[in-house]
Structure formats: structure tokens, C-alpha cells
Amino acid sequence: MSQSENYWERTDFPFMDYPEGITQKETMGCVVSSIAGAINHLTKETIWDEESLIDACGRRVTDNWQGPNVITVAMRNIQACAKLDGRFCPGTPRSDFQKTVRQLIDEGATVILSRKARSGFTSSHHMLTLLKRDGDRYQVWDTGGVRGYILECELHKTIPKYNGGVLEVHPNNDFFVISRKEKKEAISDELEQSAPSSLELRGMLEEMVVKDPPEGPMLPSTSRDQQMSKTASHTKDEILKEIRNIILYRRNLLRPTDRLDYEEFQKRICAFAGAVYHFKERLASWVKKSGIKIEPSVKDIAEGSMPLLVCGDLFNYKKHGGCENRSKLSPELSGMKLQRAGQVIELRYDGKMKTGELGRAVPYAIEIHCSENRTLGDAVKYIAKAFSVWVPTIEQIGLLDRQDAVDAVLLDELAVFTKDEP
Hints:
Layout: H1 30-43, H2 50-57, H3 67-76, E1 84-89, H4 94-106, E2 110-119, E3 122-134, E4 137-142, E5 146-151, E6 159-162, E7 165-169, E8 175-180, H5 184-191, H6 202-207, H7 224-253, E9 257-260, H8 262-290, H9 298-304, H10 306-320, E10 332-338, E11 347-350, E12 355-362, E13 364-370, E14 374-378, H11 379-387, H12 391-396, H13 405-419
Antiparallel strand pairs: 1-8, 2-3, 2-7, 2-8, 3-4, 4-5, 6-7, 9-12, 10-13, 11-12, 13-14
Helix pairs in contact: 1-3, 2-3, 7-8, 8-10, 8-11, 10-11
């Protein structure tokens, strides 16, 4: 019997019962519905629905519905999620993608693939949830309200004839993974297989995070000092998470690529710049709640650092379509340059979509150009070096202590930032 090319028409599969699967109602609700359904499935409870999770993220601010924000909110706000580990996994190398997905599914995790949905001249993102594997077939749930199965070889292929368009492979192989915590160690090893040896203590990093305090008023017997201590601990937890995210941003953006999608890379680099620039807000909050006095102040450091101001201009221009130009340099990103070292590389290019695929992964560079025909060099390295401005302050106020083995790992990672030469 011939096999349909449409995964939603394939029914000869031992389907898992998935009553938690949520059909999206909002046009942009695929991320929210996919994450909510996966959490309900793994907890065996009705924790979220589309509406409640959108409300928690901020209904009127659709930027808050972006995947990394949604999974953070979903995992943070519900006590039942303490049994789960959920994360956004950007930039998985294509050579490792199928192996990584297979390992995660076999460990009992739920994997949510990000796809590019293209129809005519418009594009957006859509999610496909992988639930279980039978040989080379994966059960898939689509928040459009259908289920079927996808072949392992199709994990990295365009799905044709989808809703009047196609579902393309995400140029950076992004996905989300939600798992039960007893599987965390094995899953973390798989996701971090490319990490340098200095992160062998990654498991310890996870244990250092103080769990979020329950929401709501404090008990009457709790002193003001205790309340401040808990609030400061929570803020410190968020800062340490952000530091790890920034380390991963740099690492993933510096990887060679086999995809040509300037728009996608530009978006990621600007997000990296935004994370570095807005780190000042988390830092200032922790300093205030901890009652620490530092000179110069966090605000003065941020306003006096040209690299940080450039990061702010890059992010604000991309996000808001305008630029306050605090740096007075009018920075913008250049085109994408492949570093082929004179080698011939196979290239398949879609002129209409302005995306392409290379025969193998190669290093690339996107530079920061500014007024008066100046260049600030490689964007990723420049942004990483900008973050190094914060390292002395981080140590000064005791956020990270080199005498602590776990903190020393993060400080060693951040030390690499200072050596980046754009």
C-alpha cells in the first residue's frame, strides 16, 4: 500500500492516547498550545489550556508568546511543573539533529519541532509535537487539530501541501523539549554533547538554582528581612539563568552553518544583543533588593559603555523598527559572509524566499557597520565582548564566587568573552 506524503493522512500507527493535545484557537497560538499540551501530557494533569497560558504570558503583548518566553512562563508558574524539565534548544547542528531527537523521545521526553510555514510571500512558524517512536516513525500532534506520523528521514525535509503552502525545516533546527526530571541527566548530556570540557559540571549548575518561591502574600510571621532575602534569591536565580542563556547564545551563533537565511540569523543576533543590553535591568534589580551599594552604579556602567549602547541600538532597531541611536553610531548588521577558504561548496538557493542550503556546514560572519563607513567587526564577538563589561561587577557584588567550583565554571566561560576580537 502506498504511503501518503501527508502526515495527517497516515493512520497505520500504534497511537499513544493523547487527550491532552490542544487545538489552537488563536492564529498565533501554536507555540502556546503545543507547550501547554505537552506539560499536561507529562504531568497527567490539566495544568494549562491555550487561553490561560496566553494570559500568563501577557495576552496583549504577542512578543511574549515567542517560544522561549512561553516555556519559561509555563514552567515557572505552576507547582506541578516542578516535576518537569523544559527548555528551548536553539541551533542544534544538522548532523546531530536526528540522533538528538531520537534520544530524547526514547528517554520519554516530548519534543516540539519548530517549522517555517510558508504560503505565497508570507512566512511564520508552526509547531509539531513528537510523542513516541516506532522504528523510523514518530507520532506527531499538530495544533491544527490533526495527528499522524512523520518518518525520521522527514525530520529534516520540507512537508509539501500544508494549508496552501509548505512546512519548511527551521534554518537553525530549533525545538523545545519537555521531560520528566528523572530523565534530565541523560537528556542534558545529549543536548550538550558539543560543550567544552569546562562544562562537565553542568549538572551542578542546574542544582545551584533556587526554586521560585510560591506566588501570593507572605505568611504574617515572615519578617521583612526574610521577605527581602527570598526576593533577592529569586532575582539571583533569574540572573544566573540569563547568564547561562547568554553563554549558549554566543556558542550557538559561532557554530558553522549549512543554511543561508540572513533574516533568521539577523533576528538571532539582535536577540543576543538585546539579552546583553537588558541584562542591566536584572542586575540593578538584584543590587537594589540585596541592599548592596556599588560605584559606579549599574546605570552608570551601562550608559558609559559604548559596546552596550551599540547592543541596545541593534536590538531596538530590530524590535521596534526605529532607533534612538544612543551610541551615536547608527549601527546596523551587514550581509552574511561565508568563510569558505577558497573551497567550492554545493549551494541550493531559493531566490524567491532568499534562503539556501549548503552542501556542508561552514563558518560565517555578519558584521556591525556604522556611520562614516566604519565597521565594528564580527557582530557575535562584538556583542559577547560587550557583555564582559559586567563580569567585574558580577564578581564584586558576589553573584559569582571563583572559590565556588560551580561559579568558577561560569566565570571561565565568561572569561572567553573578553578574548573575543571582533
